[in-house]
Automatic annotation (TrEMBL):
GO molecular function: isomerase activity
Reactions catalysed, as given in the entry: [protein]-peptidylproline (omega=180) = [protein]-peptidylproline (omega=0)
Chain ranges passing through the membrane: none
Keyword Isomerase: yes
Annotated organism of origin: Roseomonas alba
Protein name: Peptidyl-prolyl cis-trans isomerase
Job description of the protein: PPIases accelerate the folding of proteins. It catalyzes the cis-trans isomerization of proline imidic peptide bonds in oligopeptides.
Signal peptide: none
PPIase cyclophilin-type domain sequence ranges: 40-183
Amino acid sequence: MDRRTLLGGGVAVLGLAACAQDQPARAQTAAPATPPDPENILVLQIPSGEVRIQLLPELAPNHVERIKTLTRQGFYDNTPFHRVIEGFMAQGGDPTGTGTGGSRLPNLRAEFSPPSRARFLRGTVGMARTADPNSANSQFFIMFAPNSSLDGQYTIWGRVISGMDAVDKIKRGAPGSGTVTNPDRIRSARIAADIR
């Protein structure tokens, strides 16, 4: 995802960030009673702690498969949260840290869920892209707060089920652009089923 993405431009970024800050932070929906399959849990080690993300193949099977593939290749290890906007989201998954990088794999077609089925709430994890809905590759973002304007516009592939307090501590970027100087990095990313 490049700097034109996620929200389509600098003006839109400011508008949506302000919109998100005006909304009260609500907790993500409660975790299911039965534990998720370890094959569908992404475990991130970041400077502030461990974050567990439940992958949602029922919503976005191709995006979940991409996340698993890149994770198992070690792609996300040491990648920065290069764009972090207070009250809105933390974006990572670009090994260049510029907002323009991605993997060598082809871009993915959008897998939008109806807003009634999947919404951008606190802890929702979505795929970043350019203005082209079918341009997602490796970059993703974790929501700090709800933002209904993203519903049905960006692919949702996961939700934080533990460690949201660690997400809240990710180093913030400059006001407006969200560009982070000396950003926090993902120390490691693993699928829970692979952790021994």
